[in-house]
Amino acid sequence: MDGVGSAARSAAALMAAAPTAAKNQALLSLARRLRASGPALKAANAKDLAAAKAAGLKGPLLDRLKLTPAAIATVAEGCEQIAAMPDPVGEISGLKRRPSGISVGQMRVPLGVFGMIYESRPNVTIEAASLAIKSGNACILRGGSEALHSNLALAELVAAALKEAGLPPTGVQLINTTDRAAVGMLITAPQHVDVIIPRGGKSLIERISAEAKVPVIKHLDGNCHTYVDAEVDFGLALTVVINAKTQKYSPCNATESLLVHAESAPDFLPHIGAVLAEKGVELRGCARTLALLGPLPGAKVTAATEADWSEEYLAPIISIKVVDSLNEAIAHINHYGSHHTDAILTTNHAHAMRFLREVDSASVMVNTSTRFADGFEYGLGAEIGISTDKLHARGPVGLEGLTSLKWVVLGQGEVRA
Amino acid sequence: MDGVGSAARSAAALMAAAPTAAKNQALLSLARRLRASGPALKAANAKDLAAAKAAGLKGPLLDRLKLTPAAIATVAEGCEQIAAMPDPVGEISGLKRRPSGISVGQMRVPLGVFGMIYESRPNVTIEAASLAIKSGNACILRGGSEALHSNLALAELVAAALKEAGLPPTGVQLINTTDRAAVGMLITAPQHVDVIIPRGGKSLIERISAEAKVPVIKHLDGNCHTYVDAEVDFGLALTVVINAKTQKYSPCNATESLLVHAESAPDFLPHIGAVLAEKGVELRGCARTLALLGPLPGAKVTAATEADWSEEYLAPIISIKVVDSLNEAIAHINHYGSHHTDAILTTNHAHAMRFLREVDSASVMVNTSTRFADGFEYGLGAEIGISTDKLHARGPVGLEGLTSLKWVVLGQGEVRA
């Protein structure tokens, strides 16, 4: 691990200084190699799949492990998209002349080395590698042990692409062991690693945050809210809430909790309740919600407990609460939410502006679906993760989140008086 | 402490939503109150000074504790300057329409609650309070125990100013105890505190970083370098190096290490050596430096040890090394430096640009003195500290460093396909 770490640190200097053309060449070469390596990747992936099936892995976990031709085409296309994006590194902004004569501005630079710890999803190997290359960082990847053969085959392609472009093959390193101690070393080596990005379940991220001696860009849970205001277009609200809750149940940006203003509740709740129930969504309501929902034959409707307000279901379940004011809605979200993504549906401009300003979440939305909280949808090209931290990067983290700003001072011999 | 923490969290919501006019009113009221409270502040400060003298405190430590009329005038003026600056909170940048129809941008918002831990310098109480007010944050201040009476008197003025402006007096709280356990509680309470900013010696900051469960904006040491290139204006280099090293010895942005290209060394070293020696600066040189310095009667000239290259002297001592190339200079700085502030003196544009890009420090400078690394000199109005971290804020941290960006999404009923 120490060898991997110091190799990453050395590579980082070369990655940071790499010309844009070389980084793009590496990304395009990687896309080509991915498309040309179908059989080899399939063979490596088959080993992982066989072992996983033998170990009893099933359902979505097994699906995520699969490196299908479609998945390979998607990550290859992702590399090309990132190659087409502007290079964030070296941009100087805000250069201003000061009374002393010096000019002061900020230059965007790579963070250095990031460590990525993720589950058994081989596509993340390519996503992380391609973002590292374009952002001028070196990275150390630690994927789930079930995907090791697939990841090794992919990492080989990355190294070859880097080499072809004249960049250090150690710019992207995959930890070639399933030993858990390697994670412990990675997260406690500030001399080698500048930031750790964990992607996985809440327990993994909490454990890493607790033990890390290196800064962590965390994504904890996504308990997202949609608030239906007193002044609202009911048609819009129905469409948006249905999308936010039911378009997909497993993503972190799906709405888990619906807040409805008391003035809208008598009309809105029976309608939304009926549509959600028809889609098989379980409704967990406050007492006023239950009274207003009306009869929903065959639907699962229960009383929400205190724990429901904090829950990230990632499932066809929604909690519903009637609130008496915008103030109450904002206070509820700031108290029970996870500071991920929250939306207001309203026709009132002042309410929209207050919600945007006062809800303390990484993404705040007006009149649209929380499902839009995503690096691609935001125009970042790709995302390395979604941060629920307040410092550095909030929400979807793309190329910019993997950089920081240093101060640049240009003088002509000025001295401090 | 739990009461202080939850009061800060409640106040933070009000501070974040506060109108710019109210925040400015509080700052101007604070300036007025500071100017009108000379006798009361003097009396409180006298208690601290008497106790400190009785405890044997001397020299600079005692000087820093003094709340002189001049010091009061300076912090009052600082409040007025911060009132005159633009409000960073609420600014929306980069709002762009996406193919889906939504508009996506970023809004600048306060971090929430910051905890400030500092030594016995009462002026820091007002600097931190004024930056908190303008940036819309609540803060919890823990000053050095020797300054407790002075700090309590100052905190009373801050609370009155907040109240006068219709803001929560608990927006700025001073911990009214010298119990060290309070620090431990402050740095391990993520439910109450979003970020800790320690200001003090390296050992204090290392201890806080090691024990904190809350993110820390750290300022470790300032081992700053000035590199004199092969192509350089000797007159400019002499002026700048003398200023960078000798204008003041104690600040973190003073140059501690001088690197000289082998082509410049034979001419430059005897000159700079003579001037530094005349000013009483001890010279610790590499073997080539010692050979080139020539006779310096009465000067203290010694061989630099490996430890010298990493040392932050904060004293009239400088380490000097001859390097054979720009590459060697950059590698030396990135290896031994503290990523604080480093400067190149050169007439060569390509060398200047490579230095700016490749030296991994919070501030990188061309042809000027490292002593300029300062919030006021950079135009930030004030600084809460200087960060040597890579994430979030690097270098001088002003109002912007106390904020973060959240994503703002504006729709008209768009849903995710």
TrEMBL record, chains A, B:
EC class of this enzyme? Answer: oxidoreductase
Reactions catalysed, semicolon-separated, are: L-glutamate 5-semialdehyde + phosphate + NADP(+) = L-glutamyl 5-phosphate + NADPH + H(+)
Q: What is its EC number?
A: 1.2.1.41
Where found? Cytoplasm
- Gene Ontology molecular functions: glutamate-5-semialdehyde dehydrogenase activity
Gene name of the record: proA
Q: What is its main location?
A: cytoplasm
- Record family assignment: Belongs to the gamma-glutamyl phosphate reductase family.
Q: Which InterPro entries match?
A: Ald_DH/histidinol_DH, Ald_DH_C, Ald_DH_N, Aldehyde_DH_dom, G-glutamylP_reductase_CS, Glu-5-SA_DH, GPR_dom
Which lineage ranks, top first, belong to the organism behind this chain? Bacteria, Pseudomonadati, Pseudomonadota, Betaproteobacteria, Burkholderiales
Q: Where would I find the Aldehyde dehydrogenase domain in this sequence?
A: 7-274, 309-374
The protein's matches in PROSITE patterns, at most eight in alphabetical order, are given as: PROA
* Keyword hit for Amino-acid biosynthesis: yes
Organism equals Roseateles albus
Function, as annotated: Catalyzes the NADPH-dependent reduction of L-glutamate 5-phosphate into L-glutamate 5-semialdehyde and phosphate. The product spontaneously undergoes cyclization to form 1-pyrroline-5-carboxylate.
Keywords from the named record: Amino-acid biosynthesis, Cytoplasm, NADP, Oxidoreductase, Proline biosynthesis
Q: What is this protein called?
A: Gamma-glutamyl phosphate reductase
Per the record, the pathway is: Amino-acid biosynthesis; L-proline biosynthesis; L-glutamate 5-semialdehyde from L-glutamate: step 2/2
Pfam families cross-referenced by the UniProt entry: Aldedh (PF00171)
- Give the highest taxon in the source lineage: Bacteria
| Residues annotated as signal peptide | none
